[in-house]
Amino acid sequence: MLIGKTIEDGDAIKEKEINDEKSRRILVCGKTGSGKSYSIGVLLEEIIDKDDTIPVVIDPQGIYWTMAQPNQEQESELWEWDLYAEGENVNLLVPGDPIERYGGEDIVQRIEERGAKVNSLKINPSDLSNEMWVDLFDLDISELMGSTLYKAVKKARSDVGKDFIIDDIVDKVSKIKTHDKTKEAVLRKLDIAQGWDIFEKVSYTEIEELLDPNAINVIDLQTLEPSRYGLRNLVVAVLLKFLFRKRSVARRREALDLGSDMKKIWLAIDEAHNFCPSGKSTLSNDIITRWAKEGRQPGLSLIVASQQPSAIDSDVLTQCDVRIIHKLTNKKDIRSINALSEDYISNDISHYINKLSNVGEAVIIDDQQESIDISKIRPRKTEHGGWGA
User: What distance in Å separates the CA atoms of residue 337 and residue 175, rounded to the nearest whole number?
Assistant: First the structure.
C-alpha cells in the first residue's frame, strides 16, 4: 500500500509502502488537525483497489461518505504522484431509517447525488448473545431484572430460533414467574429498545447482504447519539462478531479447497478509544480485542485511530505492528507509543515526533520491515471532509 514518501533533510526521496500480503494491525494517531483522518482515507483508497478485500470503516464523525467524490482541490499534487482525482464506490450504512437519522429525504437524495449509496443498517435481536442483552441495559445477571431478561432471551432463542424479535422477548418476559414489578421494569427496557429503531422488527436479515464487496462500507455512527446504553458500541459489537464468524468459516473452507465467496476484511475504527477504551468495559471491547489478537489467521486486518492513543486498550495497541504517528504533544500519549518501541528503534519516539514540521507528515514505524521513517502522506484521490465538504 502506497502511503507517502520518506523525508530526509526536508526533501521527499523515496516512496513509503506498507506490505499487506498478510493481515496487518495499524495504529494511526495524532492530535486534532494533524492529518489522522486524512491518512485513514489514504489507507482505504489503497485497500479498495485490492480484489480480495472488503474495507469497512467505523465512522463516529460522519466524515468518510465524501470519499465518493473526487479530490479536485489537489489535482496538481496528485499528478506529481501519477495519480488522479476520482471518487470511490461508497456504501453508506445508517443505523435505523436514514431519512429519519439525517433529518430529511432531501438530505439523503443529495448524498446519493454525490455518489454514495445510502442503506439502512438494522440489527437482528438474535445476533446479541443472552449476556449482551443484559449488559446493554447495564443489568446484573445475579439480580432479578438481569436474570429475568437473560431467561427471556434464552427462551426466545430456543423456541423461535434466530428469527426471534423483541416482541418474542416481551412475550417470554410476560410468562416468567417473578414479581410483577420486575416484569414491568424489564418490559420498559425492551420498549425503550424498540424505540431506538435499530432492531429488525419482522424477520432475520443477513448482515453480509448489507455489505458491498466492491465498495468502501462506511458505518455512519454519527447519526446515533452517544448514550448510556452504548448504542454505537452495540452496533460495532454485533457487526464485528458477525464478520469474525463469517470469515472464520470462510478460512476453513479455503483451507480445505472448498472455496468461499467471503472476502478478507480490512476494518478501520476512527476514534477507537470510544470502542475499546483502556481500563473500561464496553459492549464492543472484547470483540475488537479478539479481532486484534486472533484475526490474522482468518484474514481480518485492523486500523485503529485516535487523538488519544493512551486511551486505547493496551491489548489492542500492543498488536499494532505499524504505527503512523502524526503530531502528538500530550506526554501520556507519547509514553504509550514509546511503550510499543522495539529494539531496532534507537531513540525516544518524541525525538522523531519533534521533526514533524507540517500537517500531513508522520513518523511511520513498521515492525515487519524494522524501519522508522519521517514521511509525507500522499495526497488523497477522494474528497476529505464531511458535511462541510
Answer: 53
